[in-house]
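--- STAGE predict ---
source: upstream dedup step, 1 unique chain passed
mode: sequence only
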Amino acid sequence: MRQMPFEPPTEHYDEKIADIDEQICKLIKQRKDISNHNPGFPTAQWISAWSEKYDFCEEFLTSVFLHFFNEDIYRPVVEPKGFRKNIPVLKSFEKDDLFFSVTLVRQFENASVVHFSIDANTASEPSIPFQEHPFFDLSIEGGGEYECRNEGGGGCEGHMFHTYTISPALPDDLSVIKFVFKECKEPFQQPAGFEFVI
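--- STAGE serialize ---
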């Protein structure tokens, strides 16, 4: 997700609240650490109780926690540059009437782009409606630490595809790499429990 540039209104800042703002940052970090980066979202009952106790609108508190929940979308976007080559992968996983495959990896100087497809057996039953179509987060095992970003996709009846930008670039020898796909539910990329490795 590309972020619009934001110019903060810095004409005025009350330095007396700087220590409080730093404590807010410290508490956010503490929240991430305690929850192992998976805090979930406060229930409506918690939001309602806190809004009354601390004199905030419920909508405001909801928007604050929504930003915590979606922190990943604010990470810098890596734009693949300097195309090098295509590496065919052609590995797959099958479950029920769905066929999942990684077809190829496009190698760039600063990143890799993974092409992922989902094909449904439309001969046995009608295609899955788009709103019910599974979505997957990708993580990489082997070869180091990687940032994986789902760049979206598309499709038609019985076929869906997604692309993921991986940074830094994957090694050309993909035999040391495992692609781990974890199903998630929209909105907010909630884990759904099903995962597989290609």
